[in-house]
Amino acid sequence: MASAGLQFFAFILALLGVLGAITATLLPNWKVNADVGSNIITAITQMQGLWMDCTWYSTGMFSCTLKYSVLSLPVYIQAARTTMVLSCILSAFGICISTVGMKCTKLGGDRDTKSYTSSAGGVCLILAGIFELVPTSWYTREIISNFMDRTVPESSKNEPGGAVYIGFISAGLLFIAGVIFCTTCFKKQQGAWIYPTKQQQFPATQQENSAGYNLKDYV
């Protein structure tokens, strides 16, 4: 019951992690620049994402432009696009595999097969968390280095947006869920290794007793 409860808890964490990864991939506020002029009417907020750049005006108008050219983008944005998409695919695939290997489901065959399936799903979730953590950290490093550069004008400096924080949180959730699935599988295998050794002790004692009786018969 404890392992089944842990697996269900890991499934909830993985589900939240997948939703967070998809949300962070699609949101346009990876990079935010708030440029407030002397007049409140001219106040604008510029947001840059992986797929589009958006501008929000204080008057309520909101406009976005898609990034069609891939080669014109910086390397870290190209890498972030690729790894975030891979993270979403791996996390969704890991949830499907882990659902089959969960103890509370009737899918996946016998106990050993479900254990290996749960472990495979956990590995996919761990890889998905790593694939999401790497581009998020790289993107944040670029923002901070640009912000600390004195040669960059104040109007061109940016700060991390909400999508970056969502990426960090969802990466942590996916990693924790994957570790839990792999840990429950390891506990099952460890129990399978211990109990057969205890059962094999009885035939050995029986052989010793039978050998002892044979020696007494000869004496």
UniProtKB/TrEMBL annotation:
Pfam families: PMP22_Claudin (PF00822). The chain crosses the membrane at residues 75-100, 120-139, 163-186. GO terms for cellular component: bicellular tight junction; cytosol; Golgi apparatus; plasma membrane. It comes from the Eukaryota. Residues 1-20 form the signal peptide. GO terms for molecular function: structural molecule activity. Keywords: Cell junction, Cell membrane, Membrane, Signal, Tight junction, Transmembrane, Transmembrane helix. It is a multi-pass membrane protein. It is found in: Cell junction, Tight junction; Cell membrane. Belongs to the claudin family. Claudins function as major constituents of the tight junction complexes that regulate the permeability of epithelia. PANTHER family: CLAUDIN (PTHR12002). This is Claudin. It comes from Chelonoidis abingdonii.
